[in-house]
Write a structure and sequence with these properties.
Elements (H helix, E strand, L loop, with lengths): L2 H12 L2 E3 L11 E3 L1 H21 L3 E2 L5 E3 H7 L1 H4 L1 E6 L6 E3 H4 L12 H10 L15 E4 L3 E4 L5 E5 L4 H6 L1 H7 L6 E10 L14 E11 L10 H4 L2 E5 L1 H6 L3 E4 H6 L6 H16 L7 E5 L11 E9 L3 E10 L3 H10 L5 E18 L1 H8 L3 H9 L3 H4 L3 E6 L2 E6 L3 E15 L2 E8 H12 E7 L6 E7 L10 E5 L4 H16 L4 E3 L5 H11 L3 E5 L1 H6 L1 E6 L5 E5 L3 H10 L9 E2 L1
Parallel strand pairs: 3-10, 12-14, 24-25, 24-26
Antiparallel strand pairs: 1-2, 4-9, 5-6, 5-7, 8-9, 10-11, 11-21, 12-13, 14-15, 15-16, 16-21, 17-20, 18-19, 22-23, 26-27, 27-28, 28-29
Length: about 575
């Protein structure tokens, strides 16, 4: 078995991950999180909240997972959120066309359908399942479609990302933050993509969890007030230029900004924050890199975009976080479709005298002429140039309908006015985290199989251990009475209550030999095990065992909850926790 199979086998056996709908044969692209998996996932999410909500101050919102069609028309998902699908003419199996040729060409996902078809034909690529001939690639929209309401209802879609809810709520968020840039919102929740052929476990799911932040910043000032926090942090950067050379460069974020490799401080700060978060939850630093989108894959509206990629044993480098400067694309797109101005008012430090071209439609005459359309006609007139307004017939188009306005009911002139501020459309910095991929990567990087001394210290035996970070582990402390005797169960239960009151994740385990219970807890990543034995009844002490070193110390029950809490959250050294055994 490769490492992926070992991790998934353990995950299924120990209650981290299970195939969804297993009773009915299952279906690809869906997984259930078992008791330990749900807890581990929530721990990752909670640390993400602590990072972005508590420390950065980007408050959390919760928007519906179903959106009306207009939202996704504006965002571009209805017209452009698709993957190239290729079907086998023989067995009918469907595949992503770019995945079929990603070992043949360097950037397969940048090719058009015609180019993909040419590569498939020229290289005689066959169906991976039956070796049959493949059909021509075509676009397949990845959104799940649904109807809202009875009958024909209203067209809706399951959201393919959590971001759009934060853009829709922009004006509310701006008022909440008193229109002072920068400000941001976060959201953790389910997203849905009808993937063509999800064959990579939790790496590619049809229902998955995202954690995203949308940070609205001044388009003319992209410095970060706390950039010094990460300026000297060295990270593995796989820039556009480095990808041409085929070599990752390690450099500080400050140096990367200074050299123009990363567009600006605010984006670099988000890369630093992502690096900090991923390593805090247990991603190995030497298996983490930040890859810049190359020129031919960069979204047309993005100034700069970087992906945090984690190295995995089976799948190689896997994207787990996207960090992008999306400029004002999203707010402008929603403003255009909703016909609502999405901007904020920024007051100048001192008023300015500005010469403006001012158009003044006569509403008293426009009203009777155009009735309900008068306001829209007036707004359209204000957008015209002086040359257009000087024509004998002034024409405006509203929702595809043409209106002719008499020249004598529109005045215009240049005026010098004093203005105190201006409306600006903020730019958006978006860190977008794939929680399921991070969950798997954390498990794989923690998984280890090693040979340790056996029962008599003369023979070796295999030990599987999940070296999960202590604050992430789904079980932080195991309570193990040596025997299932009433005199030992009483103090064991008392210690369990103390630890739970301290907010620690505790498991009570009295099944099997003590050695078997140690191994069981090693497998699920429990950092510490506390054994209650007959010496406990004599001297009121217990044995604490460390998962990683397997060393043991004897410590008093009095203050045990504070002691374990300090070891988990305050980096208290295990050796100082008690008397070594």
């Amino acid at each position: 078995m490769d490492k992926y199979e070992q991790v998934i086998e353990l995950a299924k056996r120990r209650g981290f991950l299970w195939n969804s709908f297993e009773l009915y044969g299952g279906t690809a692209g869906f997984y259930d999180y078992g008791p330990l998996g749900s807890t581990l996932k929530r721990r990752i999410e909670q640390i993400w909240r602590e990072t972005y909500v508590v420390q950065e101050g980007y408050m959390e919102i919760e928007a519906p997972t179903i959106g009306i069609e207009e939202v996704f028309v504006a965002s571009g998902h209805v017209g452009g959120f698709s993957d190239p699908l290729c079907e086998c003419k023989n067995c009918g199996e469907a595949f992503r066309a770019d995945h079929l040729v990603d070992k043949i060409v360097a950037v397969a996902d940048a090719l058009s359908n015609e180019e993909l078809d040419r590569v498939i034909r020229e290289n005689n690529v066959k169906c991976p399942e039956c070796e049959g001939e493949l059909g021509e690639p075509y676009e397949f929209n990845l959104m799940f479609k649904t109807d809202i309401g009875p009958g024909s209802g209203r067209q809706g879609y399951m959201r393919p990302e959590t971001a759009q809810g934060m853009f829709i709520d922009f004006l509310r968020l701006a008022r909440f933050y008193r229109e002072k840039l920068p400000f941001g919102a976060t959201q953790i929740g389910k997203s849905y993509r009808n993937e063509i052929s999800p064959r990579q476990g939790v790496i590619r799911l049809r229902e998955f969890t995202q954690a995203e932040a949308e940070i609205f910043i001044d388009p003319n000032d992209k410095r970060h007030s706390n950039f010094s926090r990460f300026a000297d942090t060295a990270v593995n950067l796989y820039s556009d230029e480095a990808q041409d050379k085929g070599a990752v460069e390690k450099m500080t974020l400050g140096e990367a900004v200074e050299k123009g490799i990363i567009a600006h401080e605010f984006l670099a700060y988000q890369i630093g924050l992502t690096n900090h978060f991923l390593q805090r939850i247990g991603v190995a630093g030497d298996k983490l890199r930040f890859r810049q989108h190359m020129k031919d894959e960069m979204a047309h509206y993005a100034i700069d975009c970087w992906d945090a990629e984690i190295e995995t044993d089976r799948f190689g480098w896997v994207e787990v976080v996207g960090i992008a400067d999306r400029t004002d694309f999203d707010l402008k797109a929603h403003a255009a479709v909703s016909k609502t101005e999405l901007s904020i008012y920024r007051e100048y430090s001192e008023p300015k005298m500005v010469t403006q071209f001012v158009v003044k439609p006569n509403m008293g005459k426009l009203g009777p002429l155009f009735k309900g359309k008068a306001k829209n006609v007036a707004e359209a007139l204000k957008a015209l140039s002086q040359e257009e307004l000087e024509q004998d017939n002034i024409t405006v188009i509203i929702d595809g309908e043409e209106f002719t306005v008499p020249k004598d009911i529109v005045d215009f002139a240049e005026e010098t006015v004093k203005i105190s501020g201006e409306n600006i459309i903020p730019h958006v910095i978006e860190p977008s985290y794939g929680i399921d991929r991070i969950f798997y990567s954390t498990m794989e990087h923690a998984f280890e199989e090693e040979m340790v001394a056996g029962k008599e210290d003369t023979e070796e035996e295999a030990r599987i251990v999940m070296r999960l970070k202590k604050e992430v582990a789904p079980v932080q402390v195991a309570i193990l009475p040596l025997l299932t005797r009433e005199e030992l169960i009483g103090p064991a239960k008392s210690i369990e209550v103390q630890l739970k009151q301290k907010g620690l994740l505790v498991s009570y385990d009295d099944s099997g030999t003590i050695g078997r219970r140690y191994r069981r807890n090693d497998e699920i990543g429990t950092p510490y095990s506390i054994t209650i034995d007959y010496d406990t009844l004599e001297d009121n002490t217990v044995t604490i065992r460390d998962r990683d070193s397997m060393k043991q110390v004897r410590a008093p029950i009095d203050g045990i909850a504070d002691l374990v809490y300090e070891m988990i959250y305050m980096n208290k050294d295990f050796e100082s926790a008690g008397k070594a055994l």
